[in-house]
Design brief:
The mean pLDDT is 94. The protein is 31% helix and 14% strand. The protein has one domain: Rossmann fold. The protein has 9 helices and 10 strands. Helix 4 links the parallel strand 1 and strand 2. The protein is globular, with a radius of gyration of 17 Å. The strands form 2 sheets. An 8-stranded mixed beta sheet has the order 4-3-2-1-5-8-9-10. It has 237 residues and is of the alpha/beta class.
Length: 237
């Protein structure tokens, strides 16, 4: 059975080979893909997206369309700063505070940092819906990201802060080539998904994996903790 790195390489190579990756290429990234806008439109039509008021989203290119749609629909958007290096690592984007031009810009990572409001962790709104990028997923809800681990850590921080619970929907948008028909390796800090949106449809997953219950401190090394101020502040000893 291929490990996570092997599966990532398989997917990246297949996307480039089949011509479905988009600038700047798939390798090493949450890959941008042909039909990303359509996948975002499919997701926005789903009942769980429609009822969400606050969405925590990843910053990667293929999810730009979904982030922009969220803002245009009046939803509050939460995004994390790169590598969680800021003492207050989340930014809140509220459509009512943004001009039309600012709203379009705010859907990008640079725009989110520019227009997002710096908010203390305990002042963040509760999150109804989490949008995450993926390299590979399967129909059991297993997901593989690009390997940095920050998405899982952001989720754990928000769990421990009381901003996410079992009712929060977890979704991803992918190209169909990223959906694999085999087992994917899952460990306890990995975040499984409930919805998989493609340019063709939204798949409601019968998730077979438990979500992380918060920050798994024993999975972190002391240098990682020292590099992320919010972790030190949350009382790790």
């Amino acid at each position: 059975m291929a490990g996570k790195d092997g599966i990532r390489k398989e997917i990246w190579k297949a996307m480039d080979r089949e011509g479905v990756s988009r600038f700047p290429g798939a390798d090493g990234r949450i890959p941008n893909f042909a039909g990303a806008r359509l996948a975002a439109e499919k997701l926005a039509g789903h009942r769980l997206w429609k009822r969400a008021r606050t969405i925590k989203a990843n910053p990667d290119s293929p999810q730009t369309h979904a982030r922009r749609t969220a803002l245009e629909e009046g939803k509050t958007l939460i995004m994390a700063v790169p590598r969680l290096r800021d003492p207050h690592p989340f930014r809140v984007l509220e459509p009512k505070r943004l001009s039309k031009a600012a709203m379009k810009e705010a859907a990008t990572i640079k725009g989110a940092l520019k227009h997002g409001r710096v908010v203390a962790l305990d002042e963040l709104p509760e999150v109804d819906f989490v949008l995450t990028g993926s390299v590979a997923v399967n129909l059991s809800g297993a997901r593989i990201g690009k390997g940095g681990g920050y998405n899982d850590l952001e989720y754990g921080i928000l769990i421990d802060a009381g901003k996410i619970d079992d009712h929060t929907t977890i979704a991803t948008t992918v190209h169909p080539i990223q959906i694999v028909r085999r087992h994917l390796p899952v460990i306890s800090h990995d975040l499984p998904v409930d919805l998989i949106a493609t340019p063709r449809a939204v798949i409601e997953v019968e998730r077979q994996y438990e979500r992380p219950r918060g920050i798994l401190w024993d999975h972190l090394q002391p240098p990682q903790i020292r590099e992320i101020p919010v972790l030190e502040r949350m009382g790790y000893a």
